[in-house]
Amino acid sequence: MPAPPAVAVDGVSKTFRLPHERVHTLKERALHPLRRMGHEAFPALKDVSFAVDHGEFFGIVGRNGSGKSTLLKCLAGIYAADRGRIYVNGRMSTFIELGVGFNNDLPARDNVMINATMLGLSPREAKRRYDAVIDFAELREFEDLKLKNYSSGMEVRLAFSVMMQVDAEVLLIDEVLAVGDASFQQKCFDEFARIRREGKTVLLVTHDMGNVQRFCDRAMLLERGSIVEIGEPDRVASRYLELNFNSGDVEATREEADAGRYGDGRGEIVEAWFQNEAGERVQTVPGGGGRLVICFRARFHETVEDPLFGVVLADDRGTPVFEASNLLEGPSGTFEAGEETTIRIAFENVLSSGRYEMTPAIARGGSGVAWIDRRERLASVVVTAARSTDAVLDVPFDLEVGERERR
Amino acid sequence: MSAAEASLGRQIKGPSAVGSDPRRFWHLTRALAVTEFKLRFFGSVLGYAWQVMRPLLLFGVLYVLFTQVIDVGNDVPRYGVALLLGLVLYTFFSEATSTAVSSIVDRENLVRKIEFPRLAVPLSVVLTALFNLGLNLCVVVVFLLASGGSVRWTWLELIPLVGLLTVLASGVAMLVSALFVRARDIKPIWDVVLQVLFYASPIFYAIETVQESAPSWVAKLLMLNPFAAILQQARHAMIDPQYQTAAQAIGPDWRLIIPLGISFGVFALGYAVFRRAAPRLAEDL
Q1: Same domain, A116 and A35
Q2: Which of A247, B5, B36, B285 is the most exposed, fewest CB within 10 Å of its CB?
């Protein structure tokens, strides 16, 4: 018989009843005995099934309200699932929040004991591991200090250390990674790598696709309580970005675009899109090289001589990334009423991950700018890069560390 | 559960009142109670002394009032210590139950963030109150010996009596803490109940005084209250054998079943209500 999975989830559903009007007092009940509390059923999880193997690092991703936290709470046993079954093999610990039960008025020692007990250690085990906790947190010199005198970073370090010492075989973690200073984060990542090597099972709920791609063996994307995608972290991350940037707000984007539309009506931009090297229209492209093509189609209603075609590409914060036009390329010729043309601007895709929007425009040449049609943020593309960077561009580079020299 | 299902491991069924591991339940309850106890008078100059001072201050006022101004206590044997014992036991019951009312809501950050046997929360409150009762009983002993009382074997009766009072307090604690999550006016209601209990129990008067000055059924009715019965028996056992036993005060012995039944009944009811509410506490908060 094959070994059972570390975590098996079978058809789990969870519906919250959200009362329309919260009746909190008996008086309200007594005054309105006939008024039943109206309930709105909010299905947070719909028939979710999956299994996680021993030693797997499993990512659970999804947008706000997609049900990922509810799922984690069901797994942790904080919520009771309405339907379906959840099985766990091995000792499990939940880290929905760091430092559960921490009290500001007590010194580190007491807090470690309380926290460790909450997480499932017996007082004796907690006492035995106390030194390891303090050493990992590098807080030996502050161990008698009350928690309220700790800096937030120190508090986080302490909490994280306890969590690492609990020795669970299955860990449920909810976005507690993005805390602490850089060196501590690195320490946590190292610790995660160690946990992985030790063959522990981790279920990580996160927003950060960088972490998913960096740590996870497999990931699962939730949307409105259902599984959308489950498998390779890269694929799930792409789906997540796609979902995040493209779903639902297409209409809103179009309206916004119309609001930002200028022109005298001699011509119009009919549509705009991105396409890849192969000429396929794309909404998502992988980052890290390859050519990306910005395309838009223009139609003329009157005769226009030597129109200018241009485009501005901006990131989702509105910062222009680059502009391209035929201003310096020489005359484009005369277009008669009823004629159409497609403009293609191909460029080396050095964009880092994120969403980019194009604002195409047609204008009349000559002095000053006279818009024929300019449509703000008409189309967008999501770049999913494996490498996570805060910069807009991810330009290929060579980095070389020189020979060691003594002066 | 079939064999195939059993091989899948432990099934996660959501939060419960007690959980599957009694040791963990006890560790948690104790950890919560000890923390609460440490924090109670944290930062105050006198520290734990305040825990003892509280009933003592009330005692001082009531003692002067009922011996010097209104003549309630002068015919009663060792009135001072009897009053103090009453106050100490009442303080325990009132502290345990009134703190328990909002305990689940106060511990929201735990309940919503981690899986643990939910019953640990209200019971830890009772346990903290029990620690305080221990301290206060030491003061009672000091007063008792100072006022000429002697150490007697019957003092041991205090252990089952406090145990019974703890059963009653725990029952109420479970009941009110579970109900409070959904109906917030349990708190004012319970405050009134405690007030009534204070005057309806022979704390600052003796049940013997009631028997002399009121129709005989009044005293018997008062003794149906389990707190009154426990206190009466404690006075008999600890302060002075001149005090009637609870059985004598209530009439025929069999009537003791009523206060006993109420205590265990409240416990059973509280447990049943809490157990039903436990799985959804995190959502209802």
Answers
A1: yes
A2: A247
Contact B10 A122 (CB under 8 A): no
Task: Among A21, A69, A118, A171, pick the best mutation site for testing chain B contact (most B Cβ within 10 A).
Answer: A118
Q: How would DSSP label each residue in B140-165? A: HHHHHHHTT----GGGGGHHHHHHHH
Co-location of A234 and A280 in the same domain? no
Backbone phi and psi for residue A342, each to the nearest 5 degrees, phi listed first: -115, 130
Q: Can you give the pLDDT at residue B96? A: 95
Distance (Å) from the C-alpha of residue A51 to the closest C-alpha of chain B?
11
CB contact under 8 A, B14 and A113: no
Residues A180, A291 within the same domain: no
**CA–CA min distance B225, chain A (Å):** 26
Q: Where residue A370 sits, what CATH number does that domain have?
A: 2.70.50.60
Look up the pTM and report it. 0.73
> Residue A206's domain spans which residues?
7-245
In our burial notation (b when 16+ CB lie closer than 10 A, e otherwise), range A307-322 reads bbbbbbbbbeeeeeeb
- A–B interface: beta-carbon pairs under 8 A: 109
Of B12, B184, B283, which has the smallest distance from its Cβ to A77's Cβ?
A: B12
**C-beta atoms of B114 and A110 within 8 A:** no
Contacts of B184 in chain A (CB under 8 A): 24-25
Q: What is the DSSP letter of B280?
A: G
Question: Which tens digit of pLDDT belongs to each residue from B173-205?
Answer: 999 999 998 888 899 999 999 999 999 999 988
Considering the domain boundaries, does residue A205 fall inside one?
A: yes
ipTM more than 0.85?
no
Number of structural domains found in chain A: 2
Contact partners, residue B53, CB within 8 Å, separation at least 6: B46
Coil, strand or helix at B263: helix
Most B-contacting residue of A73, A92, A127, A203 (CB-CB within 10 A), to test interface: A73
pLDDT digits (tens, 9 = 90+) for A6-55: 889 988 898 887 766 655 667 766 766 555 556 778 888 888 999 998 88
**Site from A53, A72, A87 to mutate, B interface, most B CB atoms within 10 angstroms:** A87
Per-residue pLDDT of B95-153, as tens digits, reads 999 999 999 998 888 888 888 889 999 999 999 999 989 989 998 999 899 888 888 88
Beta carbons of A78 and B282 less than 8 Å apart: yes
Task: Give CA angle at A212 (A211, A218), nearest 5°.
Answer: 150
CA torsion angle B67 B70 B72 B75 (round to 10): 60
Q: What is the CATH number of the domain that holds A184?
A: 3.40.50.300
Q: Which residues of A touch B116 (CB under 8 A)?
A: 118
